[in-house]
Specification:
The protein is an alpha/beta fold and 174 residues long. The chain is built from 5 helices and 7 strands. The protein has one domain: NAD(P)-binding Rossmann-like Domain (Rossmann fold, 3-Layer(aba) Sandwich), CATH 3.40.50. The radius of gyration is 16 Å and the shape is globular. The structure holds nicotinamide-adenine-dinucleotide.
């Protein structure tokens, strides 16, 4: 199994890389930094907004764990966050479809339902939450995570190539 992990040098990515490497998988990691110290993986500097570079990294992979994102509204302008999270995710699914990669697990967020970054005092309709809970967002990050779930479900190339995906933690999948 050769798996591509986008954003693999981040907080979630590093332990995931180690976990996959321990399973004996061939792990390819892309992230923004020129180098990485993650043991047991093949690392490349690659911006997911660069479709050609991303497509080269996608070639030969069996699956993708898509983690690359700007995970906070505090560090970047909304337009930058939106571009990386939404356009970047389009690129990941599109490049995977063209490379014949049919399995993608992506990090969505509980924020797709509203929550921490929101600017209103919203209560959830019920608890514990599940994937049937209605969507709600009042900030760029939460909205971007709603859209990445839509991209996974609706992107024409992904549907045409019958990609299977899961968007965690809501577990929306095909
Ligand atoms: N950590 C959490 O509690 C949490 C909760 C919910 C969802 N998530 C989601 O999980 C994923 C990983 O989160 P994290 O906490 O590890 O964040 P992180 O910021 O530690 O890791 C994200 C990684 O993506 C990389 N990245 C950013 N822009 C990129 C680009 N254009 N091209 C390639 N790489 C790029 C960053 O360099 C970073 O290493 C994100 O999608 C985030 O939205 C995280």
């Amino acid at each position: 199994m050769r798996v591509l992990i986008t954003g693999g040098a981040g907080r979630v990515g590093r332990p995931l890389c180690e976990h996959f490497a321990r399973k004996g998988w061939d792990v390819r990691v892309i992230d923004l930094a020129p180098e990485s110290s993650i043991a047991g993986v093949q690392y490349a500097q690659c911006d997911i907004l660069d479709f050609d570079a991303l497509s080269k990294q996608m070639a030969g992979c069996d699956a993708v764990a898509h983690l690359a994102a700007i995970p906070s509204t505090l560090t970047h302008p909304n337009a930058t966050l939106f571009s990386v999270n939404v356009s970047g995710t389009c690129n990941v699914f599109e490049a995977a479809a063209r490379a014949g990669v049919k399995r993608i697990a992506q990090a969505s967020s509980i924020n797709a339902l509203g929550g921490y970054w929101g600017c209103d005092d919203r209560q959830f309709d019920y608890f514990p939450l599940d994937e049937n809970h209605r969507l709600h967002s009042t900030d760029a990050y939460s909205f971007s995570k709603q859209l990445v779930e839509e991209i996974a479900a609706l992107l024409p190339s992904a549907r045409r190539h019958q990609q299977r995906f899961i968007s965690l933690p809501r577990r929306l999948e095909r």
